[in-house]
Design brief:
Elements (H helix, E strand, L loop, with lengths): L12 H11 L3 E2 L1 E6 L5 E6 L2 E6 L2 E5 L12 H9 L1 E6 L5 H7 L9 H5 L3 E2 L8 E2 L4 E13 L6 E13 L4 E2 L2 E2 L1 H4 L2 E3 L5 E3 L23 H5 L5 H8 L20 H13 L3 H12 L2
Antiparallel strand pairs: 1-13, 2-3, 2-6, 4-5, 5-10, 6-9, 7-8, 9-10, 11-12, 13-14
This protein binds flavin mononucleotide (FMN).
Flavin mononucleotide binds next to β3 and α2.
Length: 285
C-alpha cells in the first residue's frame, strides 16, 4: 500500500489540526479546572495533554490560540494569572458533560453549573476538583512554552503535580485498573475511544535482551502468512532456541503454509514454546 506524503506548508492551520488530531490518537483528555484572577471558576477539556516525567511528577496540556482568530482561551489566561490548575481525567460516564464544558462559553461564565459537574475544594491549590472524575491532579504551573504566534499555534502549560486524587474503587491489587477508571481518549473529528472492556489488551514487557527480528530464520521473514506481529513475538525471545533436532509429532502440518498457520495459531494462543517447536520443523522442510 502506498503512503501519501503531506507537507504542512501545503495545508491551512485547520487542515493541519485535523491531520494531527486524526493521526495522533487516542489522546488522553485533561478536563482543566482553573480560576480567573477575579476568582471565577472555569472548566474546559484539552486533549493536547500528557504526562512527561514522574520525578517530579510533571504533566502538560495545551490550551492553544483559537484557530479562528488567534485569540487565547480563558483556561490559558487563568492558569498564567494564578499559576495553578487542576486536571481531571474524563471517564465515559462524564463525556456528555465534558462536551458541554467545551462549548465557547463567554468570558466570566463558570462552566461547572453549565455542565452539571460538581466542584469540590482541592487540598493545595485554589481551583476546584471535579467530584465525578476518577483521577485528578492538583498542579502548579512550572513553564509556559509558546509554539508559534498565529491562529491555532500551541501554548503549552507544563505543571508539577502537587497532589493526586484517585477514586478508591479504581485500585485493583494496588494498581490502577483501566476497566475501573473507564477513561476516554480523543481521536480525530467527532471520534472518541473508550479505554476499557474489549478495547483493553496486555503486552508483556520485552525480554531484557531480545534476539531481534534480524536474528529470525529467513524462511519466516519470507512467509506470506506470518505477520509483523507474529514475527515480533518471536523476535522478543531472550535467545534463539536450538532448532537443529526438531522432529514432527503425529498430526503436525507438513507444508510450509500449514506450518506457518500452525505457528500463527500457537502465537495467537500465547504458546511461544510450541511456536518455536513448529519453527524448528518449518526451517527443515
Ligand atoms: C475532547 C476535547 C478536547 C479538546 N482539546 C483541546 C486542546 O487540546 N486544545 C485546545 O486549545 N482546545 C481544545 N478543545 C477545545 C476547548 O475545550 C474549547 O476551545 C473551550 O471552549 C476552551 O474554553 P476556555 O476558553 O474557557 O478555556 C477540546 C475540546 C474537546 C471537546
Amino acid at each position: 500500500m502506498s503512503h501519501r506524503t503531506i507537507l504542512p506548508a501545503d495545508l491551512g492551520s485547520i487542515e493541519t489540526n485535523a491531520l494531527l488530531c486524526g493521526g495522533v490518537g487516542p489522546r488522553p483528555i485533561a478536563l482543566a479546572s482553573t480560576l480567573s484572577a477575579e476568582g471565577i471558576r472555569n472548566l474546559s477539556p484539552f486533549s493536547f495533554f500528557n504526562a512527561f516525567g514522574s520525578n517530579p511528577p510533571t504533566v502538560a496540556f495545551a490550551p492553544n490560540r483559537r484557530g479562528r482568530d488567534g485569540t487565547v482561551k480563558h483556561t490559558y489566561l487563568n492558569a498564567v494569572a494564578t499559576g495553578e490548575f487542576v486536571i481531571a481525567g474524563v471517564s465515559h460516564a462524564m463525556v456528555h458533560q465534558m462536551n458541554v464544558a467545551s462549548a465557547e462559553w463567554a468570558d466570566g461564565v463558570d462552566e461547572f453549573p453549565k455542565c452539571g459537574l460538581t466542584p469540590r475544594p482541592a487540598r493545595l491549590v485554589k481551583p476546584a476538583l471535579v467530584e465525578e472524575s476518577p483521577f485528578q491532579m492538583e498542579c502548579r504551573l512550572q513553564q509556559v512554552v509558546e509554539l508559534g504566534s498565529g491562529p491555532g499555534s500551541g501554548l503549552m502549560l507544563i505543571g508539577q503535580v502537587l497532589a493526586f486524587h484517585v477514586r478508591e474503587d479504581c485500585f485493583s491489587d494496588g494498581i490502577l485498573h483501566p476497566d475501573r477508571l473507564d477513561l476516554v481518549g480523543r481521536n480525530g473529528g467527532a471520534w472518541y475511544t473508550r479505554a476499557s472492556g474489549k478495547a483493553l489488551f496486555q503486552l508483556p514487557k520485552p525480554a531484557a535482551k531480545p534476539i531481534g527480528y534480524d536474528a529470525l530464520p529467513e524462511v519466516l521473514k519470507q512467509s506470506r502468512i506470518l505477520t509483523g506481529n507474529d514475527l515480533g513475538q518471536l523476535a522478543n525471545n531472550a535467545e534463539l532456541p536450538d532448532l537443529s533436532a526438531a522432529a514432527p509429532w503425529p498430526g503436525d502440518a507438513t507444508t510450509p503454509e500449514g506450518l506457518d498457520r500452525a505457528i500463527q495459531r500457537a502465537l495467537g494462543a500465547g504458546d511461544i514454546e510450541e511456536a518455536w517447536r513448529l519453527v524448528g520443523l518449518r526451517i527443515h522442510l
